[in-house]
Predict the structure.
Amino acid sequence: MTDSATDARARLEQAGLEATPRRVAVLEALAALPHAPAAQELLDAVRRTTRMDKVTLYRTLDLLVEAGILQRHTGADGAFRHCMAPAGENAPHGHFQCTRCGVMTCLPPLPEALDAAALLPAGVTVEHVEVRLDGVCGRCRQG
Amino acid sequence: MTDSATDARARLEQAGLEATPRRVAVLEALAALPHAPAAQELLDAVRRTTRMDKVTLYRTLDLLVEAGILQRHTGADGAFRHCMAPAGENAPHGHFQCTRCGVMTCLPPLPEALDAAALLPAGVTVEHVEVRLDGVCGRCRQG
DNA sequence: TTGAAAATGCAACTCGGTTGCATTTGAGCC
DNA sequence: GGCTCAAATGCAACCGAGTTGCATTTTCAA
């Protein structure tokens, strides 16, 4: 049993979820990736070690997002990306997405300026803040 | 000819685009809406005055975004929304989207804190900043 | 008026994601 | 070890947003 599998099981059980093989595999695959992958890319990664249907992946992602273990973000292409929710930290972080290769990377926590409730009309409640910077990554710029 | 139609024609010609009936209709419908609609909602609105195919709408939206007349934003549901690009102003503005009714509204220009190139890894170029606050709007909160 | 280019419509398609339902798995119990 | 039942998974069919290819219509210049 690898460390990452142990971590994955710990987070699942801590959230009151059964540590099934696919859930562990999803968390391991996600932790091993340096960015926030689209569903298809994550599915490919998981399948290198575990058989998994795409429906199971989507249901697993829903579950893990619901449990607060993962975060879901919208890409510029309209497809969802998922990344590990930083444990114990609640300052939102933004993402950078390359318009050429589509890779989405996590950024450090945002300055609190985005807490900007001042911008909002009265009577609304904010549950989630999404900040995405779109541009060209270093790799694509050179290639 | 209404004022909004005149405005629409002006913006189109200023951008070097032909002021065709559907383009004018799209701009008028968009200017009349108090929020940034999804394509289907915009199509419904346009069709109250003009016959239009959905493909034509999508192509028109592409064109107007390309020309800088409209801005395209990604909703929490992954569908695109469009709003008028504020003329002559280039500070990005964010959006609030209600997670219940899905309505996306434009916010005032963002504090410059988001210019946060400091957050970025070296070698990347930012072309577009997307800020979206998700929550519950006043109307949905009461209803 | 006419001819070419641009704009539009229509049909079929892609892609990300979801739903319904049958089957398998696995934790708890004997 | 073998049961049992709920939860987890797989499979097929589906849905909605957006796209592509191509035929038709409109528009503008000559």
About this structure: Residues 54-66 of chain B form the longest helix (13 residues). The domain at 3-142 of chain B is CATH 1.10.10.10 (Arc Repressor Mutant, subunit A). Chain B has a mean pLDDT of 90.
